[in-house]
Amino acid sequence: MQFSLNDFLIAVSFALDFVEMDRLGMQSNHGKRTAYLTLCIARRLDLSEEEVYDAAALSILHDNGLSESSLYEQLPQEWNHAVTRFEGSRGHCVIGEKNVKDYPFLTEPEGVILYHHERYDGNGFFGLKGDEIPLISLIIAAADSFENYFKYAGGDYSHEKVLEWVNSCEAGMVSPQLAAILHQMAEDQSVWENLSNDRIEPALDALVPSFEMEVPLDKIRQVTGVFSRIVDSKSSFTRRHSKGLAEKAARMAEYYKKGQEETARLVIAADLHDLGKLAVPNSILDVPRALTPEEFETVKRHVYYTRVALENIRGFEDITEWAANHHEKLNGKGYPFGKTGDELDFNSRLMGCLDVYQALTEDRPYRKGMAHSQAIKVLSDMAKNGFVDNSITKDIDQAFGFVI
Ligand SMILES: [Fe+2]
Ligand SMILES: [Fe+2]
Ligand SMILES: [Fe+2]
Ligand SMILES: [Fe+2]
């Protein structure tokens, strides 16, 4: 399939940005701004297009490990200042590096996310210094520090403030070569004007090399698998939810003897179905009690965010439907649109049924997962009342009855 990995990343990056907003109180577009500045620096170095392309992906993904909720549980309570919590944790570097290990980069970069908080003078989390640190890590560290710096300087990108930030980077964070580039950039007003929320996206698009290539669906699956892990790691309540749904979607595709291509598309839809949950604060996702009506309204938005993230990706039209319809019900009582049976194709119905089955059978910290027969009983009752597809429920019973 003709596909641009970075177009995909830019499309879903707002979901990652939400994690930073939730965790760090960052403003929106943090990932895009960090990627844009990374590319402004990378473009001034003698790098190949492939290296620049990977630098874009790595900078968008640099803080993907932040969604790991257990990191925050381990930090002392008194560290309630968002940036202190963030800087105080090397865990997000380790988890972030691990999450992207299957990502199909063009240049096999190693350790870039792991070392994105290292400093040239050796005062980073891991104590690497100078040329021991991957170049792209140092660039991302500088770009990332811009966001922190200006958040507290009130987002005023005046020449004087930009120079202040460049000097702060020069004092140990970056190499003399990068410091010289930052000084050059400080004199180029267009760099700073492009950072506003309404200009950042086209500015970033213009800097990313366009490699639209024939990408096999199994490679795209490697990327969506990364996102599935990021989503699952956001909340300890649903630690295996997307992974479990993808496995079950693959099993049902086999049951229905679907071809390789449709199977891969179904699995990709399962990987991404709850992507929008990245935009729901953990303070709501992690409450071990029934949600208040207001909280439930917020949680319901996740499917809408899933749709918004996926619908502009060329070639993902059917995947978007199957992923974003998973809470719609045949009787029109689902969300977000209240679609009815005649608006839901077979794979959307299948995803809806499987999502319920997966949720019922998985263990949560506050309850054991249901046995297969109990879960089928719940699904059958829902089918009787017109919520989910009755024949698909029977097929799920057949397909999983003896294996679970
Ligand atoms: Fe970070
Ligand atoms: Fe960051
Ligand atoms: Fe969902
Ligand atoms: Fe789900």
UniProtKB/TrEMBL annotation:
Ranges for domain HD-GYP: 5-198, 216-404
One matching Pfam family: HD_5
Protein name according to UniProt: HD domain-containing protein
Coiled-coil intervals: none
